[in-house]
Design a protein that fits this description.
Layout (H helix, E strand, L loop, with lengths): L1 H12 L7 E7 L7 E6 L3 E5 L6 H19 L3 H4 L10 E5 L4 E4 L12 H5 L1 H12 L1 E2 L13 H12 L3 E13 L3 H9 L4 E4 L2 E4 L11 E12 L5 H15 L2 E6 L5 E5 L36 E2 L1 H8 L13 H8 L13 E2 L15 E3 L2 E2 H6 L2 H9 L5 H23 L16 H15 L5 E5 L7 H16 L3 E5 L3 H5 L3 E6 L8 E7 H4 L6 H7 L17 E9 L2 E9 L3 E6 L5 H18 L11 E3 L6 E5 L12 H5 L1 H10 L2 H6 L23 E4 L7 E4 L10 H4 L8 H5 L3 H7 L4 H12 L16 H14 L6 E6 L7 H16 L3 E5 L3 H5 L3 E6 L8 E6 L1 H5 L5 H9 L9
Parallel strand pairs: 3-18, 3-19, 5-17, 17-18, 23-29, 23-30, 25-28, 28-29
Antiparallel strand pairs: 1-2, 1-4, 6-15, 7-10, 7-11, 8-9, 8-10, 11-12, 13-14, 15-16, 19-20, 21-22, 21-24, 26-27, 30-31
Helix pairs in contact: 5-13, 6-8, 12-13, 13-14, 25-26, 26-27, 27-28
Amino acid sequence: MASVSTVSSEVTTLTVSTERFITLQGVRHHNLKNLDLCLPKYQLIVVTGPSGSGKSSLAFETIYAEGQRRYLETLSTYARQFIRQMDKPDVERIVGLQPAVAIEQKKTPPHPRSTVGTVTEVYDYLRLLFARVGTPFCPTCDRPLRPQTIDQMVRTVLARWTGEPIAITAPIVRGRKGFHKKELEQAQKRGYTWARIDGRWYRLEDVPPLARTRHHTIDIVMDRLVAKPEHRTRLETALQTAIEMTRGFARVVHWENDEEILLSTHHRCPQCDFQFPDVEPWLFAFSSPKGACMICQGIGLVTPAVARRWEHQPRRVEEMDAGDPWEAWAAWNTEEESFGGEDRTVPCPACEGTRLRPEARQVRIHGQNIADLSRMELGDLRAFLADLSWEGTDRLIAERILPGIFHRLEYLIDVGVEYLTLDRPTYTLSTGEMQRVRLAAQLGSGLRGVLYVLDEPTVGLHPRDTARLIRILHRLRDMGNTVIVVEHDEATIRAADFVVDLGPGAGEQGGYLIAAEPLDRFIRHPTSVTAAYLRGDRRIPQRPLLPLDRVPWLRLRNVRRHNLAGIDVQIPLGRLTAVTGVSGSGKSTLVFDVIYEEITRYHQGRGRVTPLYCDAIEGLEFIRQAVVVDQSPIGRTPRSTPATYIGVFDDIRKFFASQPTARVWGYGPGRFSFNRPEGRCRYCEGMGYRRVRLHFMPDAYVLCEDCGGDRYNADTLKVTWQGRSIADILKMTVDEALQFFHAFPSITRKLQVLSDLALGYLRLGQPSHTLSGGESQRLKLARELTRSARGGILYLLDEPTTGLHAEDIRYLLQVLTRLVEQGHTVVVIEHHPDVIRNADYVLDLGPGGGRWGGRVVACGPPPVVAACAASATGQILKFVLRPDAKGIK
């Protein structure tokens, strides 16, 4: 607490420059305890502390929210009615605040049209590049279609045949059957005397009858002349006349050797008369009806029923008689509703998964269309574009567009996602990948004087690549921005200019300012737990590793999925296994897309299912169930609470229903549920507060005037035990409830699990959507621990250390050890060195990401992996396994 008063006095007594500092006074948002602090601008600031100590409340819900709210207030009231207003944080005063941009850890909404290319704007630049310098090709004849102006046509002719005899002709008939008497008679009436028919020259009065069943090509001669600069006016006049007669085409033929060139002012095919649409950026936009595939509507995926109907339709949609191709498809596909319930999707057969209409895929640059470039890995795409050569006007245009592409690609490569492709949907990205993609997009925008707030950007990043990310953060700072990072990663904290440490605990025990000072002073802080870990005074203890002999194994042979290159994998059952590797090496593919899906299919098919992504699987008979434990929110409404999630509230409701008063009045357990109408407050409907809508301002939430925030009606609250009603129980912390119900084992057993997980500070009725990611994951683990102790369950965890302080990781390892002791198998995808060295078995994938990954680099106990020189994880383990190791520098 001494540090709190010290910082407070500095803020209140010193005259602080708003140009150099952001000053906050009286911050009381959520569990923050009336904080006063002063943050230096244009520096890298790390906010750290135990999970639930108030880091996100300070960084995002106070600093960022206030910066965003102030910006929105500068807009007109008309504009503000279309924008979701942010809540005003509970703070007395903030001065020196800059415009704020947040890059949060939250998973993006699964919008099917959002891709890496659209989020980073690289695809927008590519659309512009293809629209301006791309060459369209006829979808039928595969001929290049290059429009020219009259002046360009003249320069082309003079450059090719200067001083030679030529004829300018109008191709009025191009490869059509018939007698064509009408066309020839009209040309003769207009005063023309010569024609070129099927490659031979005729006077119009001497043209022989044409065969009706043969394809003919007829050109009317506009003028014959010698190609010289002094004949430029005649040449322009003849070309203009030919273009007017044919609606955009002119042919120039050498009079002696019959060499010819076809010129056009439109993207129109002279062979099949296909009219190519205007080549504009919208043609390549799969989010626009003008550019999207008409079958999948720009999604790239369809249900199997749609794919079958497309493949078996009587003729192509483009050839149907309806004016609009999509209307033709919809009219023919009358059973569209019958396949709406299918969950599985397949690539659209019409666009082959590219999302684009056929014409967009026919525009090429050096033989590649925009879909081909979108499928390239980002590193390969940069190399391809850098190797292109341009000439003339195309060079001037490309030099204006390409720097914007290179600029963004370099940032994407620098943040470690060079293995991604532009067409990769954002909903398939991990949380860490999506955050780094958004970070690269912000860097590419080149903003200055902005306050950036980031939430654990090292999520999903291998320690080997953390240095690259730190250089990015420093570059963002050096551009003239203030960067605030909520982070626990030791290397990131050591790279900070200024550190804010909150604590000392979580929930009600947190929210205090432990330290707010430059890094060199912070490391020497006497009471900060974070500083103690940085100094090496504290260290996560090493659990005893369990032997791997005499245990069954889960074995998968020739695994093939995404970038997994036919690998053989084995995982010991009944042990803690860490799956490691650099970002994009195939960890999530192996654990979730292969192992989890194969086990699920095995149990659904009762053991009679052939493996889908591998040749054979052994050991499935030892696994009762596969459970995924991630950090997704456990509830999105205030009706979900820790007590309801782990099931202890059911026991508490049954207990209150057994009280004499409840039995006399006929109250059952449902009476004490705030989700049931008979027992809850009818004004707030069990929420405890009411929302007041305010125009042009954020909605206000006020305590319900009828129940005072208790959620229940007066009759329900009359049932008490030891003077406490059901509403009073929900206001208790886990530790308080554990003491209150100490005589009831069915309740204390579940509460004790929460307390063992260091979640004793949580209130039983706290809305679940207010919990941090680390708290949500530990609640999920707690629910698993409260279930049957019988072993045989395979738990799959994705980066369980996300959002956890080093002190919290100690408790996490205790929980994972407890699951293993109960006979379960725990597989974690993890980058944290302390978790990896505490695993019984390590499976390291790599050696790189994307196509450079998908192979087993090393496997075995941590000391075995540490001895592998080819393993990036092994090199980290080699350091942290040393007895004198004090952290990753």
